[in-house]
Amino acid sequence: MEIIIPLAGMSLGLIIPLAAFYLVYHEGKGKRETVLEIAKHLNDPARIEELLGIFDERKKEPIDYRRAGVITIWVGIGIFLLGYTAMGPLFVGVGLLVAAIGIGTMAAGYLYPNTSEELTNAVNKFEEN
Questions:
Q1: Measured between alpha carbons, how far is 68 from 106 in angstroms, rounded to an integer?
Q2: Are residues 115 and 84 part of one domain?
Q3: Do residues 123 and 68 both lie within one domain?
Q4: What sign does the dihedral 62-67-69-74 (CA atoms) show?
Q5: Who contacts 76 (Cβ-Cβ below 8 Å, separation ≥6)?
Q6: Residue at which a domain ends, from 58, 86, 105
Q7: Do 34 and 6 share a domain, yes or no?
Q8: What is the pTM for the complete model shown?
Q9: Which range marks the domain in which residue 19 is found?
């Protein structure tokens, strides 16, 4: 009877990712079938590309490293405080490591070129003068 809990824990480590993949597959399956059915009735390849662009859910904007860095810093501070107050020195070290990664990410946000929107705004401001 004592072995049931460890086996359930190990099983859930496998069952949860498989269930997530299954749900994502079936969610996308309907979209793919819809696009295929519409594409059968369209003769213009440009319209098909436009249709695929509508269903494309990926972000078109570049990553804002400054925002991601600030979020990571605060996650590191939270882990640090958890370790400092309750969990022990291992979590203190992990929290400091995560916060340091956040600082590096935020620094990268200031070193890399700005997003296209910020560049466009800067050019428009320059042209106004």
A1: 7
A2: yes
A3: yes
A4: negative
A5: 95, 96, 97, 98, 99, 100, 101, 102
A6: 58
A7: yes
A8: 0.50
A9: 1-58
Distances (CA, A) of 125 to 21, 61, 95, 96: 47, 21, 41, 40
Name residue, tokens 């107050």.
85
Question: Taking the CA of residue 84 as centre, how many other CA atoms within 13 Å lie in the half-sphere pointing to its CB?
Answer: 8
| Residues 66 and 126 occupy one common structural domain | yes
DSSP string, 38-56: HHHH---HHHHHHHHHHH-
**99-121 confidence digits (pLDDT tens):** 999 999 999 888 776 666 666 77
Cα 64 from Cα 61, distance rounded (Å): 9
Whether residue 8 sits in one domain with residue 45: yes
Structure confidence by residue, pLDDT tens digits, 37-86: 777 777 777 777 777 676 666 556 667 888 889 999 999 999 999 999 99
Angle at the Cα of 80 (from 79 to 83), degrees rounded to 5? 85
Say if residue 13 is in the same domain as residue 72: no
